[in-house]
Design goal:
alpha/beta; Rossmann fold; nine-stranded mixed beta sheet; two-stranded antiparallel ribbon; about 25% helix; disordered C terminus; binds S-adenosylmethionine
Amino acid sequence: MTNSPPYYRDEQITLLLGDALQQLRTLPDGSVDCIVTSPPYYGLRDYGTEGQYGLEASPAEYVETMRRLFAEARRVLANDGTCWINLGDSYVCSPKGSESKTDGLVGRSNHLTTPAGSGGKNGGGLAAKQLIGIPWRTAFALQDDGWFLRNEIVWHKPNAMPESVRDRLSNRHEHLFLFTKSPRYHFDLDAIREAHAAPDRKAGARAFRARDLNHQRTATGAYTGPDARGRNPGDIWEIATRPYPAAHFAVFPIDLPLRCIKAGCKPGGTVLDPFSGSGTTGAAARQLGRKYVGIDLNPAYHDLAKGRFAQGVLDFDATA
Ligand SMILES: C[S@@+](CC[C@H](N)C(=O)[O-])C[C@H]1O[C@@H](n2cnc3c(N)ncnc32)[C@H](O)[C@@H]1O
């Protein structure tokens, strides 16, 4: 395959225009250290570009698209690299966009819901109103394909859009999976530790008594108290979504890729987003002094990203 010239390149950023799978095929083995991405969700959104993913006829076809794509991404990832994939779920719903009838899918959470017909065509045999479980179906397929699944992170959105549903709970989270190519990989926990919560005096006293009991029970007698460098942030991340008026599609908040890159990309390494969109992952990589390779089908999105990089706008003003 002949490599077409990059859509944009400077010493830190490379933007490639075209289908993610085809563009990945042009990249050398092991040439990126970290992948942070949010693929088009299943049946949710029409990006208006021929060849876009997410509009497959069934969940199984979507999962196969993702498996093939990430198999190629695995070749491009360094052996000690990490791959962070953000995925949201969908319900089987009616052509009018309600969950209560038949045929078609509706997206949810902070995205616009998409009337069926512009999204996936069916739930692959699932009846209307079923939650499809796309994130886990995709995660299992990647696991079966050779990826090491290391974390299921729940991205909790405290400001998620309200939903007008009356017979189920509204959705306030998405998934972020951490995959690796090998059992041993670069992971800098210290870079993302959180401050310990300051205990109130009564709770502190209770914790001290519990700690004391534990101390008596341990075989070695050694007490492993809180780490002075801070605590592990855990697998539930509360991060508010931020509006980005310039993009009419789902943009994840920069705090998400910032945390993934701090932990999962070695200093000076290269971060890849095969679904770059407005370049949020690139902005985070740039802010953290990593290189960035972004792929997208749509030149207008690369232009948005270039604008962000050029202005040095590394984050959005949520109040704008
Ligand atoms: C959920 S958006 C990514 C948003 C991005 N995280 C951001 O913060 O702006 C998904 C992106 O995938 C792109 N896309 C869809 N199908 C694609 C394909 N086959 N190859 C490459 N990009 C594709 C869309 O153009 C869109 O920009």
